[in-house]
């Protein structure tokens, strides 16, 4: 909180005008191969999945997305926080909001592919193996063209994207 009792930051739905700032925020993480880079059009197509965090002066300091993958399964995507704001609760605020969104949609499980295992572990996620979905559901999901679904299913074609990442799941 600031001295006036105002919150230091605000979590809200992303707007199309936020897309350039989302890309700018994740650029350093893409350069470090922590996040996958995406074309701007992909962010516009998925803007309704994103929540952003702005500081009291309106600067975008964090983002994250919730992507529905199946009837009861969603993925936390593109969770990023500006370096100066790490350790101030921004990531946790985004994750809490995405979890509330997931519950509202009727999801019971959240997946993430991450290098940030300690953060997600502190927030109730656990590392998972390959066999977490029914074979019938697998046969349906494998038809998806979405890269995140392919990463969740641990398909060979996305292995270069997932090297070093941990596959994690949280039950809501």
TrEMBL record:
Domain N-acetyltransferase residue range list: 9-146
Keywords: Acyltransferase, Transferase
GO biological process: L-arginine biosynthetic process
Record GO cellular component, one term: cytoplasm
GO molecular function, one term: L-glutamate N-acetyltransferase activity
EC nos: 2.3.1.1
Presence of keyword Acyltransferase: yes
Pfam families, per the entry: Acetyltransf_1
Keyword Acyltransferase: yes
Protein name per its UniProtKB record: Amino-acid N-acetyltransferase
Organism from which the protein derives: Mycetocola zhadangensis
């Amino acid at each position: 909180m600031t001295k006036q009792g105002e919150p230091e930051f605000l979590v809200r739905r992303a707007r199309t005008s936020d897309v350039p700032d989302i890309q700018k925020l994740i650029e350093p993480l893409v350069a470090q191969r922590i996040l996958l880079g995406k074309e701007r059009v992909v962010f516009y197509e998925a803007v309704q999945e994103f929540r952003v965090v702005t500081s009291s002066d309106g600067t975008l300091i964090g983002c994250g997305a919730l992507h529905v993958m199946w009837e009861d399964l969603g993925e936390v995507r593109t969770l990023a926080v500006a370096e100066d704001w790490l350790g101030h609760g921004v990531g946790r605020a985004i994750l809490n909001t995405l979890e509330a969104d997931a519950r509202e949609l009727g999801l019971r499980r959240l997946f993430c592919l991450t290098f940030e295992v300690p953060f997600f572990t502190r927030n109730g996620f656990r590392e998972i193996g390959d066999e977490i979905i029914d074979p019938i559901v697998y046969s349906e999901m494998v038809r998806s063209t979405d890269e995140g679904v392919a990463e969740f299913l641990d398909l060979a074609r996305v292995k270069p994207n997932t090297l070093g990442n941990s596959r994690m799941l949280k039950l809501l």
